[in-house]
# Entry
Amino acid sequence: MLRLQHISKTFNAGKATEVAAVQDLTLLLEPRSFTVLVGANGSGKSTLLNLIAGSIYPDRGDILLHEREIQRLPDYRRSRWIGRVFQNPLLGTAASLSVLDNFRMAALRGTTKWLRVGTGSVFRKQAAEKVATSGMGLENKLTKPMGTLSGGQRQALTLLMTVMADLDVLLLDEPSAALDPRSAREVMEIANRLIAEDQLTALLVTHNISEALRYGTRLIQMENGEIIRDYDAAAKRVLDHGTVVSWFDYF
# Structure
């Protein structure tokens, strides 16, 4: 369970450029839930993800994971429980390293510093089996540099690497926004499957209304740093594209 209690974050406090990015926000994400977050640019979505991931700290309020306070833990400490996939498919992988070496690096995340993961036959078999689940045939390209793959392929592998650790929470920061429509759909289907199979608590930020309606069991909207709409699974199922479009001046 991930719980945010009365979280606030202001940038440039006391200056002309002051921005109250998140204002007294309270949010509970139940275990194994898949929540979709929408909002216009500047509504506070990215700030909220940064607060959960530990990239920034709140000015006020508490963040609890399984009732343990984590709001002052840095992001590298939270990465043991919280994984994040960004919009840019180039950010999640090392282009000059092979697919196999990228997976080795992912396997090391969250381990003690003296633990080593090799790329011998056992690990190679495990990585190949994991990569094969993408359905892209990439299990035959383990020795290829990651930089030779397409953006969609790299984003799919980023997802698979992110969940290699025993995560509790998966943050998806517009993971399909930089991809062509076909690759975007493939990546989102992989994400949806992994969330279900690994029983993750997931939070997806998207500007794509079709994605917002298709995926997840809860839909929330932010505006001016606050949650202004919150639909559970039953209410979300009866929403249509036109209704969600009407929430925004542009989308």
About this structure: Residues 4 and 63 are 5 Å apart (CA to CA). The mean pLDDT is 93. Strands lie at 2-11, 19-29, 34-38, 60-65, 68-69, 82-85, 169-173, 201-205, 218-223, 226-231.
